[in-house]
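Just curious. Protein, please.
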Amino acid sequence: MRVSDSQAVLERYRSITNWAGELAALDEAAWIRPIAAGKASTAGIIAHLLNWDRYLIIYAIPAVQRGEGVVFPDFDPFNAAAYDYARSGVSQRQLLDEFRATREELCELLLDIGEDTLRRPVTANGVERCPHTGTPYSLLYIIEEFIDHDRHHQNQIDHVRLALQGGA
């Protein structure tokens, strides 16, 4: 069977769990240290990704299934809640396990809702097209934006990991 474009997108989205699993090797100090002045820690970034996955599961996907648009929350308080969770005493292992399990759940849910729902035009905060590309929003397009978001944070963390190994 040929893998559809949507299946390939969802597999790319799922693949960050393999990379995140490698973060278990970070020592505690590196895990909780901000990646740069004024930035989140690796723990905070993973909690941030986890929080967005939960949001997609609880709010965004059900809205699309009801034929509604996606409404994203105000980013700053939403992200602050994730960073607070990372500082709440949750262990590195627990946070990584929660992230992996939630991303797996999200990807399975996206696979289960089907191609038509993934590609159905939707609004994102009332906007029909991405202001950067002009592409009509769909749940699949939003997931592709989240892949770019993941990649941005992955690159930030990888830069820090490389520096810890003496490579930068």
User: Anything to note?
Assistant: Helices lie at 5-14, 16-22, 28-32, 42-65, 75-86, 92-113, 115-119, 139-164.
